[in-house]
Amino acid sequence: MDVRMPRLDGLAATRRICADPALAGTRVLVLSMFALDEYVYEALHAGASGFLLKDARPEELADAVRCTRDGESLFAPAILTRLVAHFIAAPRPGRVAPVLRRLTAREVDVLTLIGTGLSDDEIATALVIAVKTVKSHITHLLAKLAVRDRAQLVIAAYDAGLVRPRD
Known about the structure:
This protein has helices spanning 10-19, 37-46, 58-69, 77-87, 105-115, 120-127, 131-145, 150-159, and strands at 29-32, 50-53, 74-75. By secondary structure, it is mostly helical. A three-stranded parallel β-sheet has the order 1-2-3. Helix 1 packs parallel to helix 2 (37-46), helix 5 (105-115) crosses helix 8 (150-159) and helix 6 packs across helix 7. The longest helix has 15 residues, at 131-145. The relative contact order is 0.13.
């Protein structure tokens, strides 16, 4: 999805696609010439699974499309760094997020590690479980938290106070 399109901008189109129950399996990868924070913020909140700049190499774009198709999230490195620093509100201490009450202890562990940016293989190693088990936990997290993809799981981890941006 291109952010700037005639008649209907890409962010509004992303919002419509992601809100349509008939398109629940559809993933949106946003492309822009501009790494403006407000575009990234709006794209994520609209339901986008990733955000790349148009100067990405062809193989990076192809990789991003494959990752997005497979339910993963992909962000241009410069955007990911700012995303963590700017878009995720600092957790409020002393408060247990209501969302955590719906999760098992192991799901909270997996969500925390997703929030830190670990891959499925890295999570499996850290928790000494099989990758297939990690994927099963991720499937449960997606359903329980009613989110579309890994990018929204990262946001949920930050919102729940499980992880904090690094300095």
